[in-house]
Design a protein that fits this description.
Undecaprenyl pyrophosphate synthetase, alpha/beta, binds magnesium ion, 247 residues, 43% helix, binds 3-methylbut-3-enyl trihydrogen diphosphate
Length: 247
């Protein structure tokens, strides 16, 4: 396949007002595969390729943080076959992609609940986290076994434990403290949320962090999503008027 051309779109982007954080719900792999008479696993494999392209273009643009939703706390409802394939794909991706991340100075982050993930996935994750920990050009958060409600519940539990231990007073609990106890602690909230595949819902993604994000939807299925789509989303984002509740 010839490399995707996108110089024309790149020219339309105002490099002084890029979104600091882009979040993506990588959806539509199953439908992409079904449309081709392929098993869902083929869709997930193709989805991993799309993720590589989108990571590359975000890095090239100079996006500070990219977060991709790869597996939700609800996705365990799928068949054992599909879940098993996805776990294998994560391990494969994490071990294969580390060199590329280091080459591109990308630091990996993990969003989600460790509990419930197979040991071999956690080991691969920890290795990649460790190996990329000192990279500085871009933060790539992989949300696996992630749910916004679960994340908020874990944060509340952690704050309650700090109160119980006498480390903080109840009166000190504010929005900053809550944000500091989320998996995204210290990171900017997403400016732009992208959801492909025509679905118009959040599906339990970053419930706290998306409070003022701009939403951008596309009917394209995730494996068909390319660098041009990402750039188009950024251009549209730059034409939005964000008021944050102001007049
Ligand atoms: C997204 O694609 C990948 C995961 C949720 C793991 P889907 O597998 O949800 O694809 P559709 O929505 O069924 O087409
Ligand atoms: C959201 O997609 C989760 C991920 C992309 C990882 P789903 O396919 O699970 O969402 P629903 O079920 O359509 O809401
Ligand atoms: Mg889906």
């Amino acid at each position: 396949m010839p490399a995707e051309q996108y110089g024309d779109l790149l020219q339309q982007i105002d490099m002084t007002s890029l979104p600091a954080h882009i979040a993506v719900i990588m959806d539509g792999n199953g439908r992409w595969a079904a449309a081709r008479g392929l098993p869902r696993s083929a869709g997930h494999k193709a989805g991993a390729e799309a993720m590589r392209a989108v990571t590359e273009i975000c890095r090239e643009l100079g996006i500070q943080t990219l977060t991709v939703y790869a597996f939700s706390t609800e996705n365990w409802k799928r068949s054992a076959d599909e879940v098993g394939f996805l776990m294998k794909l994560f391990v494969e991706y994490l071990s294969k992609e580390v060199d590329l991340m280091n080459e591109q100075d990308i630091r990996l982050g993990f969003l989600g609940k460790r509990e419930g993930l197979p040991a071999h996935v956690l080991t691969a994750f920890d290795r990649a986290l460790d190996s990329t920990a000192n990279n500085k050009s871009m933060q790539l958060n992989l949300a696996i076994n992630y749910g916004g409600r679960d994340e908020l519940t874990r944060a509340v539990r952690s704050i309650a434990a700090q109160v119980q231990a006498g480390a903080i007073q109840t009166a000190q609990i504010d929005t900053n403290l809550l944000a500091a106890n989320l998996d995204t602690a210290g990171q900017p909230d997403p400016d732009l949320l992208i959801r492909p595949s025509g679905e118009l819902r959040i599906s339990n993604f970053l419930l706290w962090q998306l409070a003022y994000s701009e939403f951008w939807y596309s009917d394209k299925l995730w494996p068909d999503f390319g660098k041009r789509d990402l750039l188009t989303a950024v251009i549209d984002f730059q034409h939005r008027s964000r008021r944050f509740g102001g007049a």
